[in-house]
């Protein structure tokens, strides 16, 4: 008769490897610098491609969070005030927490869908569909 440990190790070995190793997610980092009294964020399009969210939604949200006027010029985000890269990365993190990470499985593989005029967060990893405030 198999011991409990043997049974356990058998069960463990039969789990597909993919379920055990979850690839680590890396938050995108902003590439920013000060120009006079302004903050310039480079590679805005690439950043939004990574985040897979609407530029306008992100810019509007960022304006609200920083209480600063922000415009987009030639793939750059021009913030009318000084926000250092540490603060910007923290803001990106908070945007991810609010609008990107799946509330169920916490993975970033989500997209925005519209159902009956309501915007919802749909997770491509676990299939969860959630309404998110301010999406
Ligand atoms: Zn999910």
For the terminal residues, how far apart are their CA atoms?
56 Å
Structural class: alpha+beta
Q: Which spans of ≥5 residues are poorly predicted at pLDDT below 50?
A: none
List bound small molecules.
zinc ion
Write the H/E string, N to C.
HHEEHHEEHEEE
Please state roughly what percent of the residues sit in beta strands, choosing from under 5%, 5-15%, 15-25%, 25-35%, 35-45% or over 45%: 15-25%
**What's the mean pLDDT score?**
89
Reported CATH architecture of the largest domain: 2-Layer Sandwich
Name the helicity range. Answer: 25-40%
What is the class of the largest domain in the CATH system? Alpha Beta
Write down the domain tally: 2
| CATH T-level topology of the largest domain | Defensin A-like
How many E-type strands? 7
| Major sheet description | 4 strands, antiparallel
Q: Please report the number of helical segments.
A: 5
């Amino acid at each position: 008769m198999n011991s409990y440990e043997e049974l356990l190790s058998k069960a463990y070995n039969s789990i597909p490897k993919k379920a055990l190793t979850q690839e680590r997610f890396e938050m995108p980092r902003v590439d920013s610098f000060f120009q006079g009294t302004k903050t310039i964020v480079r590679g805005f399009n690439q950043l939004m491609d990574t985040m897979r969210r609407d530029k306008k939604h992100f810019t509007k949200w960022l304006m609200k969070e920083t209480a600063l006027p922000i415009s987009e010029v030639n793939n750059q985000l021009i913030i009318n005030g000084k926000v250092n890269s540490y603060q910007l990365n923290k803001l990106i993190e908070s945007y991810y927490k609010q609008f990107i990470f799946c509330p169920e499985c916490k993975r970033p593989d989500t997209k925005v869908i519209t159902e009956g005029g309501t915007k919802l967060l749909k997770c491509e990893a676990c299939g969860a569909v959630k309404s998110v405030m301010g999406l």
